[in-house]
C-alpha cells in the first residue's frame, strides 16, 4: 500500500534558550495517508504549532535541535538542509498561517506574492504566472480577482487576506496542506467560510490536510482522525469518533467540556480546566497533566504513562487512570 | 496619495517662506546700518546715502522683502560688494562640487551599508555582526576632520596619489579622472559617517523584519534566502533608512563644509567660510538661502520615496 504520505516517528523539537533547553515537542509518532484530514488539537503552548512547523522543516534556523524522523512522500525532513527542503516547500507541503494580518508582506501587492512562487518554483513566465494567480484568487473565492490582484494586503479584510494566504499555499499544488489555526485570527462568521473553503479545496485538489487548532468544534466534522497534544506530547489519538465519544484521557474530556456545545441549555457554565499549562522547562518525571487532573494518583506524579492501545482502530491514550470505556455501552 | 502630496507641497512652500524671511532678515539682524556694514566704516556719508537709496533701504521693510523675493525668483541674489560679482554666479559655480560630493559619498555609503547590514542581520551576534558592530562604533567616534587629516597623511603625502592633497582640486570639465581623484578623499570621509548611520539603522530594522511571520511564509514558499532578503525583508525595513538618509544628507552639508575647508575645495562650504571671513554678507545670505532650501527639498524628496516604498504610510 503506497498511499501513505507522511510518517512521523519519535519526533522531538528542543529550543536552546537563555534559561536552558526547552523541549517544545517530544516523542511524537503518527502516519498520514493521502487525501486524509488529521486534526491536531491542544491548548496554547501545547506544541502543536511547533510540531506542524517541524514536520515541514520550517522551524527557526538557529537554536533548535530536532530529532526523530518525519518522512514526507519519501523525503526525510529531519536533518535536511534548507536548500533541500526548499525543493519540497510549496510543491509537496505548504502552510496556511495563523494570522493573516501578519503573514502577508504588507508592502507587496498580493498578486505579486502569488506570482512569485509560480515564477520561482514552477518557472512560469510573467504572463502565465499572472493568469494563474488570478485563477487562484478566483478559486479561493475572492470577488473581482483581476482588480484585487493589484491590491496591497492592507486594503483587504482579514477573511480576504486568509484566502490570499490559502491561494499562495495552493499555488504549486502541494500534496499536504498544513493549516495552523487558520481561523483563529478571524471573525466567527468568517471562520466557517474559511473552513468550508479548505474542505472544498481538499476534495477538489486531492490533498491531505493537517488541521491544527485549539477548537474541537473545528475538527469535529472535518477530520477523520485526531491527535490530542499536551505539553509537547501526544496524550490521546484515534478516529474522530473515538476521541469525541470514547476518550479515555481525562485531559481530552476536560478539553471537550471546556468548549461550548449548541445542544447545551442556554446559560450552561463552561467547564474551565483548572490550573495552567505546565512550564515546559520544569517538567517532572510524571504525567505533565497530573497537577491539573482530578484523577491523578501518586503514580501519575512519579512516572510518565506511555501511549497504550485502546479498543478502537488506532485509538491510544497515555494515562494510568483512564476513564472507563463507553464502547458498546450505548 | 494625491492628497498627501498636495499637503506636503503646501507645507514645503510654507517652510521655504519662513526660511526666506529668516535669510532676508539676516542682514537686518547685524548691528548698525546695513550700508555701513556693506561699505565698511571708512566710507563717506554721501556714498552711504547713495547706497541706501540704491538698496531701497528707505522703503518699508515688507516692500524690501517683496523686492528681494522678486529678484530671487528671477535668479538674482544680488551683487557682492566685496568681490563685485553676482552672488548667484558664485553659487552656481560652487554648488555642483557639493552635489558631486554628496552623490559620490552616498553611493559609497549605500553600496557598503546595505550588504553589511544584510550580512549582520542574517546572523545577529554572529562573528561578522560583532566585527561590523565594533568597526562602526569606532568609526562613529572619530570626527570627519580627523579622518580626512589621516587620509591626507597616508594617501596624499605617503602614497603620493595625485590630486588628493590639499589645494589640488581639479574641475570636472578640465579632467574628469583628476576631478574624481581630488574628490575621492572627501567623498570617502563623508561616506564613512553615512555608512555608520545607515548600517546601524538598517541592521536593526532588518533583524526585526526577519522575525515577522511573512518572512516565514516566504520561506515556506521555497524561496532562496537571498530573494527573501531583497524582495521581502529589505523594502519594509528601509523606511527608517530613507528617513535617516534625508536628514543625514542635510547634515552632510555641514561636515562637507569642514572637509572642503581643510582641503580648499571650492564648493559652497569653502565659499561660505571665506565669505564669512571677508564679511561678504550678501554671499552668506545667498548660500544660507540655497542650502536651507536644498535641505528642505531633499527631505521632501525622501518623504516622497518613502511613500512609494511603503504604501501604508500615505493610506488614509
* Class by SSE composition of chain A: alpha/beta
Percent helix of chain B, as a range, is over 70%
Helix content of chain A: 25-40%
Order of helices and strands of chain A: EEEHEEHEHHHHEHEHEEHHHEE
- How are strands sequenced across the largest beta sheet of chain A? 6-7-8-3-9-10-12-11
SSE succession of chain B? HHHHHHHHHHHHH
Number of helices of chain B: 13
* Unreliable stretches of chain B: none
Largest interface: A-B, 34 and 24 residues
- Tally of helical runs of chain A: 11
Beta strand % of chain A = 15-25%
Description:
- The complex is a heterodimer of chains A (330) and B (316).
- By secondary structure, chain A is an alpha/beta fold.
- Chain A is 30% helix and 23% strand.
- The radius of gyration of chain A is 21 Å and the shape is globular.
- The mean pLDDT of chain A is 90.
- Chain B has 316 residues and is mainly α.
- Chain B has two domains: 2-73, no CATH class; 90-309, MetI-like fold, CATH 1.10.3720.10.
- The longest helix of chain B has 36 residues, at 87-122.
- Chain B is globular and about 85 Å long.
- Chains A and B meet through helix 2 and helix 3 of A and helix 9 and helix 10 of B.
Q: What's the topology here?
A:
The complex is a heterodimer of chains A (330) and B (316).
Chain A (H helix, E strand, L loop, with lengths): L3 E14 L2 E14 L3 E5 L6 H8 L8 E9 L2 E2 L5 H5 L6 E4 L13 H13 L3 H14 L5 H4 L9 H13 L5 E5 L7 H18 L2 E6 L2 H5 L4 E6 L2 E7 H6 L4 H8 L40 H5 L5 E2 L6 E2 L13
Parallel strand pairs in A: 3-8, 3-9, 6-7, 7-8
Antiparallel strand pairs in A: 1-2, 1-4, 4-5, 9-10, 10-12, 11-12
Chain B lengths: L1 H28 L4 H6 L5 H10 L6 H13 L13 H36 L4 H15 L2 H15 L17 H35 L2 H8 L4 H13 L1 H25 L4 H10 L3 H29 L7
Helix pairs in contact in B: 1-13, 5-6, 5-8, 5-11, 5-13, 6-8, 7-8, 7-11, 8-10, 8-11, 9-10, 11-12, 11-13, 12-13
Amino acid at each position: 500500500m503506497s498511499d501513505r504520505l507522511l510518517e512521523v516517528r519519535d519526533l522531538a523539537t528542543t529550543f536552546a534558550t537563555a534559561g536552558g533547553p526547552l523541549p517544545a515537542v517530544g516523542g511524537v509518532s503518527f502516519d498520514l495517508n493521502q487525501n486524509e484530514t488529521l486534526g491536531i488539537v491542544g491548548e496554547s503552548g501545547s506544541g502543536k504549532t511547533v510540531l506542524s512547523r517541524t514536520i515541514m522543516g520550517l522551524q527557526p534556523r538557529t537554536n533548535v535541535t530536532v530529532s526523530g524522523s518525519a518522512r514526507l512522500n519519501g523525503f526525510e525532513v529531519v536533518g535536511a538542509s534548507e536548500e533541500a527542503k526548499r525543493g519540497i516547500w510549496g510543491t509537496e507541503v505548504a502552510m496556511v498561517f495563523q494570522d493573516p494580518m501578519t503573514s502577508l508582506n504588507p508592502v507587496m501587492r498580493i498578486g505579486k506574492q502569488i506570482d512569485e512562487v509560480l515564477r520561482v518554483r514552477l518557472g512560469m513566465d510573467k504572463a502565465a504566472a499572472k493568469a494563474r494567480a488570478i485563477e487562484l484568487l478566483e478559486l479561493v473565492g475572492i470577488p473581482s480577482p483581476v482588480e484585487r490582484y493589484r491590491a496591497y494586503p492592507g486594503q483587504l479584510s482579514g477573511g480576504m487576506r486568509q484566502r490570499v494566504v490559502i491561494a499562495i499555499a495552493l499555488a504549486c499544488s502541494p500534496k499536504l496542506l498544513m493549516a495552523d489555526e487558520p481561523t483563529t485570527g478571524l471573525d466567527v462568521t468568517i471562520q466557517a467560510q474559511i473552513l468550508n473553503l479548505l474542505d472544498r479545496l481538499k476534495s477538489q485538489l486531492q490533498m491531505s490536510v493537517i488541521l491544527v487548532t485549539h477548537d474541537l468544534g473545528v475538527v469535529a466534522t472535518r477530520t477523520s482522525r485526531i491527535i490530542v497534544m499536551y505539553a509537547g506530547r501526544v496524550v490521546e489519538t484515534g478516529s474522530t469518533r473515538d476521541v469525541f465519544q470514547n476518550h479515555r484521557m481525562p485531559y481530552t474530556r476536560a478539553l471537550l467540556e471546556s468548549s461550548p456545545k449548541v445542544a447545551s441549555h442556554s446559560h450552561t457554565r463552561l467547564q474551565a480546566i483548572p490550573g495552567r499549562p505546565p512550564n515546559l522547562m520544569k517538567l517532572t518525571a510524571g504525567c505533565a497533566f497530573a497537577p491539573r487532573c482530578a484523577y491523578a494518583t501518586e503514580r501519575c506524579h512519579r512516572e510518565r504513562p506511555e501511549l497504550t492501545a485502546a479498543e478502537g482502530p488506532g485509538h491510544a491514550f497515555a494515562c494510568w487512570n483512564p476513564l472507563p470505556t463507553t464502547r458498546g455501552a450505548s | 496619495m494625491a492628497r498627501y502630496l498636495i499637503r506636503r507641497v503646501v507645507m514645503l512652500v510654507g517652510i521655504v517662506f519662513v526660511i526666506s524671511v529668516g535669510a532676508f532678515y539676516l542682514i537686518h539682524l547685524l548691528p548698525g546700518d546695513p550700508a555701513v556694514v556693506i561699505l565698511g566704516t571708512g566710507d563717506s556719508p554721501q556714498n552711504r546715502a547713495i547706497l541706501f537709496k540704491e538698496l531701497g533701504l528707505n522703503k518699508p521693510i515688507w516692500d524690501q522683502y517683496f523686492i528681494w523675493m522678486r529678484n530671487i525668483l528671477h535668479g538674482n541674489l544680488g551683487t557682492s560688494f566685496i568681490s563685485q560679482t553676482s552672488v548667484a554666479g558664485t553659487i552656481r559655480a560652487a554648488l555642483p562640487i557639493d552635489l558631486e560630493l554628496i552623490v559620490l559619498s552616498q553611493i559609497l555609503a549605500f553600496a557598503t551599508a546595505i550588504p553589511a547590514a544584510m550580512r549582520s542581520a542574517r546572523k545577529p551576534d554572529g562573528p561578522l555582526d560583532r566585527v561590523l558592530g565594533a568597526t562602526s562604533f569606532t568609526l562613529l567616534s572619530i570626527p570627519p576632520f580627523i579622518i580626512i587629516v589621516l587620509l591626507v597623511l597616508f594617501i596624499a603625502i605617503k602614497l603620493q596619489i595625485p590630486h588628493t592633497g590639499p589645494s589640488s582640486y581639479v574641475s570636472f570639465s578640465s579632467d574628469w579622472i583628476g576631478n574624481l581623484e581630488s574628490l575621492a578623499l572627501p567623498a570617502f570621509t563623508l561616506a564613512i559617517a553615512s555608512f555608520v548611520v545607515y548600517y546601524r539603522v538598517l541592521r536593526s530594522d532588518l533583524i526585526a523584519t526577519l522575525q515577522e511571520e511573512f518572512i516565514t511564509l516566504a520561506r515556506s514558499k521555497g524561496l532562496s534566502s537571498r530573494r527573501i532578503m531583497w524582495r521581502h525583508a529589505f523594502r519594509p525595513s528601509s523606511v527608517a533608512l530613507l528617513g535617516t538618509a534625508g536628514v543625514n544628507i542635510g547634515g552632510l552639508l555641514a561636515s562637507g563644509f569642514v572637509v572642503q575647508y581643510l582641503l580648499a575645495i571650492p564648493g559652497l562650504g569653502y565659499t561660505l567660510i571665506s565669505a564669512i571671513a571677508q564679511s561678504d554678507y550678501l554671499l552668506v545670505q545667498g548660500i544660507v538661502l540655497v542650502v536651507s532650501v536644498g535641505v528642505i527639498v531633499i527631505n521632501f524628496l525622501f518623504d516622497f520615496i518613502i511613500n512609494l516604498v511603503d504604501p501604508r504610510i500615505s493610506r488614509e
